[in-house]
C-alpha cells in the first residue's frame, strides 16, 4: 500500500514545487477505498484528496501516507484535523515531515487522539521523492544535481568548442525531465556566450499530456553565474517564458539596469577568493527562495568549482558510445588535483541505457576517493 502511495506521489513530480510530492492511500479491510496525491501548492494535500475520494468509507480506515501529515495552517488547513474528522483509525507513514512546523508534531497529534501510528515504512523510497524539500528544510540548501554529457572518453567538446550533439535525442529528452522536476537550472556565462542555450523545459507534448493532463510544464528559474555581468542583452533565454536570474559580483548600477531592462533579475553576491560568485552563498539564497532541486548544466569551470566545493549531491552523467580523443575538452576543471589520494570519489547509484547512450547517476563519496578500496 505504501508502494502505491509512492507511485501516486510521483504524479506530482513536476508540479508541487515548492511543496513536497506526497501520496496517500486509504485502506479498509485490505481494499483501497480512496487515493490521492498533492498536485500543486495551494491545492489540497494528498490526505484531503484521498479522504474526499473515500467519503464515508474513510471511517475506521488505515491511511498510508508517504510523508507525515501536517498539523499546521499553511496555504491549506492541517491534514491531521482532516484525518481525525474522517475517523481514520490508523496512519502509516513513509517519513517524518522535515518542515520545522511539523517535524514529528503531526504524528504526536494523531497519537494523542488515539490513532495508531507506524512510521518509516519504505522510508528510503519516500525520501527519494523529495530530496530537495528535505535538504532545504533541514540544512537550508537545495539538493544539487549536476548533469553532464560526454563521449565515452569523458570529452564534452572538440578543441574548437564544437559540441553538437554528443548524446542522442533520447538522452536529451531525458535531460528535459530532469529540468522539469527542478526548481532552478544553473549555468555559467561561459556556456551562455558559447552556446546561447534556452535552459527551458521542452517535453514532448504527447508524453507530457499522457502523464500529466491539464498541466503545462512549470519553467524552472534560470540562473546564470556571471561574475562580471557579461550577459548579452539578446541572449535567447531572456525571451522565453519563465524568469532569469543573473548571479554576479558586479555592482555597477548601470550594468545592472541594463540587465533589468531586458528582463533579467540581478543579484549581487560577495566574491569568493578567486573573485567569482560564491556558489555556496548563491545556493543558500536559492533555498531562501524556496528552491528545492537545482540542476547545474554548465561547462568544466562551473561544474568543477561546484564539485570542488562539495556542493554537488548527485551527478547525472550521459555517456555516448564514441571517442573524441584527448585533444577534446574534459568534464571538470579541477586544477588542485595532483596526487591519487586527492581524487574525488564517486559512488554509482544507478546505471541504465537511454537510447544508444548510457546514463550514470552518481553521488560524491564525501571526503574520500572510492577508487582503490
Ligand atoms: C501533508 N500532505 O500532501 C503535503 C504536505 O502551504 P500548505 O498548506 O500547502 O503546506 C505546505 C507544507 O505542508 C509543506 O511545507 C509540508 O510541510 C507539508 N506538505 N503535508 O500532510 C501533503 N504536500
Ligand atoms: Zn497536509
Q: How large is the share of residues in beta strands?
A: 15-25%
Classified in CATH, the superfamily of the largest domain is: Dihydrofolate Reductase, subunit A
Task: Tell me which ligands are bound.
Answer: ligand AOF, zinc ion
Q: Give me the side-by-side strand order of the main sheet.
A: 10-9-8-7-11-6-12-14-13
Number-wise, the strands total 14
Radius of gyration: 23 Å
Could you tell me how far the N terminus lies from the C terminus, measured between alpha carbons in angstroms? Answer: 40 Å
Topology:
Layout: H1 2-10, E1 23-28, E2 31-37, H2 46-54, E3 62-67, H3 79-86, E4 90-95, H4 105-112, E5 116-118, H5 123-128, H6 131-139, E6 143-151, H7 169-181, E7 184-188, H8 189-195, H9 205-211, E8 221-225, E9 244-248, H10 253-261, E10 264-268, H11 279-288, E11 293-296, H12 300-308, E12 314-320, E13 346-354, E14 357-364
Parallel strand pairs: 3-4, 4-5, 6-11, 6-12, 7-8, 7-11, 8-9, 9-10
Antiparallel strand pairs: 1-2, 1-3, 12-14, 13-14
The structure holds ligand AOF and zinc ion.
Question: Explain this structure to me?
Answer:
Helices cover 28% and strands 23% of the residues. The protein is of the alpha/beta class and 373 residues long. The chain folds into two domains: 2-129, Cytidine Deaminase, domain 2 (3-Layer(aba) Sandwich); 132-364, Dihydrofolate Reductase, subunit A. The strands form two sheets. Strands 10-9-8-7-11-6-12-14-13 form a nine-stranded mixed beta sheet, with helices on both faces. A hairpin with a 2-residue loop joins strand 1 and strand 2 (31-37). The structure holds ligand AOF and zinc ion. The site of ligand AOF has 18 residues, from helix 2.
